Amino acid sequence: MRRRLSGVRVAVLATTLAAVAVGAGSATATTASKASGAVTLKLVVADYGTGPSNTSSKYWQGIVKAFEKANPSIKVNVTTISWTNFDSQVQTMVQNHNYPDITEGDYFSAYAQQGLLYPAKQVLSNPSNLLPVFASQGTYNGVQYGMPFTTSSRTLFYDKKLFAQAGIKAAPTTWAAVKADAAKIKATGKIGFGLPLGPEEAQAESLLWFLGAGGNYMSGGKWTINSPANITAFNFLKGLVSAGDTEPNPGTVDRTPLWEKFAAGDVGMINGSPALIPIIQAAHVLTSSQWASVPIAGEHGPLSDTLGVCDNVAAFKANGHLAQIKRFLDFAYQNQYQLQFDREYDLLPATVSAANALKSDPTFGSFIQALPHAVQYPSNTAWAQVKTDIQNTIGTAVTGSPASVLGNLQQTAQKLGG
Fold this sequence. Notes:
Strands 1, 2, 3, 6, 13, 14 and 15 form a 7-stranded mixed sheet that branches. Strands 8-11-7-12 form a 4-stranded mixed sheet. The chain has a two-stranded antiparallel ribbon with strand order 4-5. The chain has helices at 16-36, 56-70, 83-95, 109-113, 120-123, 132-135, 160-165, 175-186, 202-212, 228-242, 255-263, 276-283, 322-332, 335-345, 352-357, 365-370, 383-393, 402-416, and strands at residues 39-47, 74-82, 102-105, 139-140, 143-144, 147-153, 155-159, 191-194, 218-219, 222-223, 267-272, 291-294, 306-315, 348-349, 374-375. Helix 9 packs across helix 10, helix 11 (255-263) crosses helix 12 (276-283) and helix 17 runs antiparallel to helix 18 (402-416). It has 2 domains: 16-153 and 308-375, D-Maltodextrin-Binding Protein, domain 2 (3-Layer(aba) Sandwich); 155-307 and 383-416, D-Maltodextrin-Binding Protein, domain 2, CATH 3.40.190. The protein is globular. By secondary structure, it is of the alpha/beta class.
């Protein structure tokens, strides 16, 4: 997502040594497994924690402990990698033929294209329990390989205190209202609209504005990054920035520090996910009645669809552990572990049964309701590289030429495929 989910994906741990250890220890683990008659699975996961106290390693180790107790002939070695390095380190493992058995992160389509993965139907007893809107995103050539494990959706957060100070009576539902409200908040000395177009998650913020104009990254299997709708969106953002209604230099500002500014009461409006909620709570500035989240404002009205992201599980064939992988994934996808993950990392579930259990939750219920209408990132195999290019360059469109910046990204994407 940056997961990350997306969210949430901000902890930076000393994981390079852990990844190296997997490679260095693989022969030893294999030898030990053969000697004992046990099979050892290599599980490589992204870290969603905000520090050592809630690193994802603790979550997975809890599952592993329970699983190994119930399945004494299967051992599971867990490697946790910081979200920011996850894709590159897994790619290095694959290139070195140091294959994991299971990964939980963002990147799967290229491995499916290379024939390295088991289809979902072979490694999950009930793949139909995966939320359909995200399960479909995990397909390659009509076969599902990526299995969503955690999800997130986006809404517009606004500071009721700042709105009252600025004389604004309701949350905006159109871009015109966003601009007018941001200008009024700026007049109070605060940031009107937080616009994080820095490398952390510029691809998410951009897509929310594309959707507001009826655009997207792709349509009908073809890249549409420089479509008229997308250019319209960035022309609007350029006007918002030039008027001073956002923070200075949005193209260099990352999401997490700007979310922290919102939590501190310094930003009037910002697009966010459930991961923003614990940041607000930890700041102890805004009470639960002093902020709210609503559907994101579009050019002519609130969005009925919003960005929904998921992080995928992928199961690799190279080590030949099909039966053991299936047993582990069936165990890990139980409701209790889906809900535990969501509560610990302020994300949303990826299964129908777990989502149903959260529909009435006072914190996550509104986000759960948005999931069936979620719009995902492209499943094109070139997306990983296109995403990186977007993260590094699209922010310049609000100070330069939107048509030129989006046009260059379109050309790059087309060269990569699609």
